[in-house]
Amino acid sequence: MSHPETAVRSAAVQSGPVGGAPAGTPVGVPAGAPVDAREDTPGGPFVRSVPMLGIGVVRHRRLRPVVHAFEYPTYFLMLPMRSLGQPGAASATALARNRAGLLSFHDADHGDGRGDALEWLDELLHREGVHDARGEAWLHTYPRVAGYAFKPVSFWYCHRQDDSLAAVVVEVNNTFGERHCYLLSGPQLAFGREQEATKVFHVSPFCSVQGRYRFRFMRTAERTVARVDHDNDEGPLLQTSVSGHLVALTARSVRRAFFGTPLMTLGVLARIHWHALQLWSKRVPFFRKPEPPRAFTSR
Questions:
Q1: Distances from the Cα of 181 to the Cαs of 104, 237, 254, in angstroms?
Q2: Given 50, 137, 144, 207, which residue has the most CB atoms within 10 angstroms?
Q3: Is residue 29 situated within a structural domain?
């Protein structure tokens, strides 16, 4: 996402079913496709746990008190964190993990800043009563670009050993250096099904800390979508999403992404402030930043 509020969530797709397919149909899966084409089926189409690069678009649409919409090209990482934790796994790929690179991933950019982000994730899940997420943990996140990072939002897709979803952790950073996690879990959690969480964390000075988020995630072997909409007491306010086509993370795909948008991190920050200026000029109400929530994780 790229306006202050977009910067904190991330998503792509206009409101309504994706591509005209019935609600719950993953992107890239035609309506009426057999159930084994869907990700949350055991033995689904992306059981190969290899690092991926997503090439896609971020979209944002504000509905009130004025309409303000935009979209930008983007790219992101999709990392199988448990597989990457195996000895030698990261060094066998083009992923620059905890070291310099055109695009790199650093564990310390997530959670509580420790050197093992997966260890932090497992502790959070255990503390929150999620004990069956022992399958792959896919992390959808922005990379460091030439050593610089700003990660408005990251999504941790935590699977059971049968590949079904046990939990999704939505890890949000704001431009004040604060971080908060929304934990989604329960029997209704699945790709394509809408999930909800109460908004408790400040993201944008043009949105008060009230209302709720509505999440919907979709994924196939070749494509992923993360959609986050914000409703306040007056109804729908923001529609945001990030989507992309997934390709193998190789030296070639890394070079193409980097040289295609070498200043992506700086561009995200610049766009946040540019769109904030536009909203201010349109006299959208301004809200001062409140104290962050005491709890690091909410539902």
A1: 22, 21, 28
A2: 137
A3: no
